[in-house]
# Entry
Amino acid sequence: MKVQLLPSTIETDGTAAKRQHFSCIVIDDRVAVDAGSLAFACSDTQRKQIRDVIISHVHLDHIAGLPPFIDDLYSTLVGPVRIHGTAGMIDALETHIFNWTIYPRFSELTNAHGKVLEYLTFTGGREFSCEHLSVTPIAVNHVPESMGFIVSDGNVSVGITGDTAHTEDVWEQLSDRGDLAAVFVECAFPDELAGLAAASYHLTPAGLAEELKKFKRSGVPIYVVNIKPMFRERVIAELTNLSISGLTAAEPGQIFQF
Ligand SMILES: [Zn+2]
# Structure
């Protein structure tokens, strides 16, 4: 399984910037988990192949690249872009984004080949198929309604927590996965901002250390994503100070092969 954390912005020399403003993880160049930077940072191959976008929650940093992604492809699509979300997430996208004011309601539009956007509903705890992958959504502790995922290609699986504060189920289920190759976990703020992290349902390094006590597996790498760009260096220094084996920050643009 190939997993890429898409970058958010590109430096003037063309390399991926270290600062992660948006969240988008692409699996096997075909399926996107969140779409924060999807339209802006995907490769030509990814743009051609990705027709499934799984939403963890509808915060802007996780969906900002979705409207322009569909817009770019609009006239060339021979089948719809499929957005996978809970009923509540889909309702929020239709009410607040694709509402004819912020952006066109693509779900009501067609091109020469038919629909350009299709919604597929998932429910927490119920595995669903998406291209060649099986995906289990697990409710996590973030506002609004948010999901983490276990994504399997039949050989290996990866865990993606999405945005979350302290939570239980996702760690319990990840601990039980024998084929687990890696976990991508959020850690938004430094310890000094624990109050802000709690108020916004995010983790700090100390909070993440508490979370990892619930993860009953050893030898599985833990990659930290969704670090607030302003605090990236400080969060990484605090993560390093934890001296937890296998815990590292993922670099925006980094490609993982499992
Ligand atoms: Zn969020």
About this structure: The mean pLDDT is 97.
